[in-house]
Amino acid sequence: MKELISENRFDDGEALEISLLIIKNGPESLSDKQWCVFLENGILRDKYVDKCERCFEHIPWSNMYSAIFINKDYLCANCSYFENKVTLHKYL
Predict the structure, then answer these.
(1) Cβ-based burial of 54 (10 A; exposed 0-12, middle 13-18, buried ≥19)
(2) Does residue 60 carry a pLDDT above 90?
(3) Which is nearest to 14 in space by CA: 48, 38, 44?
(4) 45 falls in which pLDDT band (50, 70, 90)?
(5) Main-chain phi, psi angles of 51, to 5 degrees
(6) How far apart are the first and last CA of the chain?
(7) Hey, which residues does 51 pair with through a beta bridge?
(8) What are phi and psi of 6, to 5 degrees?
(9) DSSP per-residue string spanning the chain
(10) Which one, of 61, 62, 55, lies nearest residue 78 by Cα?
């Protein structure tokens, strides 16, 4: 959350406020309505991914930044590792 805020990744002021609540009180403190606003208006497809595009497992928040902004593959850490391993072997 702090990285998303510092990089100005929010498109909606209300979603930004909700992200500050998450930092302060934890995600379990949000109501269903707040989650809907946060996911629909704040974190868009290029800024949030729920499931790995390869294995369809949930991607934890701790790995999401890497999946979207660093690797840009929308894969969980495990699938990203295997994809990179397969790609590397093709070139060897």
Answers:
(1) middle
(2) no
(3) 38
(4) low
(5) -125, 150
(6) 39
(7) 58
(8) -65, -25
(9) -HHHHHTT--S-HHHHHHHHHHHHH-GGG--HHHHHHIIIIIS-TTT---B-TTT-PBPPHHHHHIIIIIS-S---HHHHHHHHHHHHHHH-
(10) 55
CA of 82: how far to CAs of 36, 63, 75, in Å? 33, 15, 10
Taking alpha carbons only, the member of 24, 58, 53, 21 closest to residue 38 is: 21
**Cross-strand bridge partners of residue 87:** none
Q: Which two tokens stand for residue 9?
A: 């990744």
Output the six-digit token pair for 26: 């934890």
Which pLDDT belongs to residue 40? Answer: 76
Least confident segment among 22-31, 44-53, 66-75: 44-53
C-alpha dist (Å) from residue 39 to 10, 11, 70: 11, 11, 21
